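Figure 3 (text version): structure tokens given as input.
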């Protein structure tokens, strides 16, 4: 009798489990559907906008994604975020939330400090708003290319030291996981010579930019600013890690140009790790490579991003 009752009881439990287990299993094993998308022309400061590449999820609660801010180059006079849309898309495809801000270039900006101010505001906007796009503000990388590397480095140095920019001390920025500087000049060389060379080869736009932005002006070289500081006098440079990338055949910013900047960072900053990467290629190997679908350039770039800001 007892045995019969036990059998019936176990049978009832088995039926109950079979009825309720399926909905529970479906609820918690639901596959996440992700849609890659972009929010274009988001106003972040005055008349300036940025694009945010992010992932829409079918689930309400998802893990926040690491973030990459990309600062384009173009000799301080010819870049824009539209030319670098492929970079935003590529980062998004690889699991990152990417932010591509526009900033005024010459002749719309006649002072490097204007560009620094705008990049500073783009970083602040990202830190304040990126959670709305599923981004993790505690896991941010900033990438600069060419003039973008120079401006990124200058923005970090001036904000870390609280230096004046457009007449006001620049506020400290959130700490980045990594700063990735591609093919950057950290000292803008002989200005008069550069103007003469650009004029001779017909690059009048660049000649006018150098004349308007740098001639008879000071305070625009991050390397020189650090050189004036005492040994290990800077606690942090606003990042846990900094990577300098150079290319073997770079005729615009020759191989070795980053060495003095690296030495100044090592000499003056207490808490930072530094990596110097040299790859085969020319000045635009990475950014044009991504734009043109070069798999080797893509691989090099994303591996550098992932190394210090993991998914």
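Below: residues designed for each position.
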């Amino acid at each position: 009798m007892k045995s019969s009752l036990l059998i019936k009881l176990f049978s009832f439990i088995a039926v109950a489990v079979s009825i309720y287990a399926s909905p529970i299993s479906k609820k918690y094993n639901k596959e996440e559907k992700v849609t890659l998308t972009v929010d274009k022309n988001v106003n972040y400061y005055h008349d300036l906008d940025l694009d945010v590449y992010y992932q829409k999820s079918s689930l309400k609660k998802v893990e926040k994604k690491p973030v990459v801010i990309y600062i384009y180059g173009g000799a301080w006079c010819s870049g824009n975020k539209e030319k670098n849309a492929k970079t935003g898309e590529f980062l998004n495809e690889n699991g990152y939330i990417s932010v591509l801000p526009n900033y005024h270039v010459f002749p719309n900006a006649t002072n490097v400090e204007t560009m620094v101010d705008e990049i500073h505001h783009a970083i602040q906007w990202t830190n304040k708003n990126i959670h709305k796009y599923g981004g993790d503000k505690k896991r941010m990388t900033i990438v600069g290319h060419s003039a973008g590397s120079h401006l990124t480095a200058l923005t970090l140095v001036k904000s870390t030291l609280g230096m004046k920019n457009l007449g006001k001390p620049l506020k400290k920025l959130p700490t980045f996981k990594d700063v990735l500087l591609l093919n950057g000049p950290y000292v803008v060389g002989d200005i008069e010579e550069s103007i003469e060379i650009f004029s001779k080869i017909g690059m009048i736009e660049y000649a006018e930019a150098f004349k308007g932005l740098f001639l008879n002006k000071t305070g625009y070289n991050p390397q020189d600013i650090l050189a004036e500081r005492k040994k290990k006098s800077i606690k942090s440079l606003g990042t846990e890690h900094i990577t300098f990338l150079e290319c073997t055949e770079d005729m615009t910013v020759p191989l070795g140009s980053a060495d003095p900047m690296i030495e100044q960072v090592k000499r003056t900053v207490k808490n930072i790790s530094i990596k110097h990467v040299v790859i085969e290629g020319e000045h635009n190997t990475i950014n044009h490579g991504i734009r043109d679908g070069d798999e080797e350039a893509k691989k090099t770039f994303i591996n550098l991003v992932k190394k210090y800001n993991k998914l």
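The mean pLDDT is 91.
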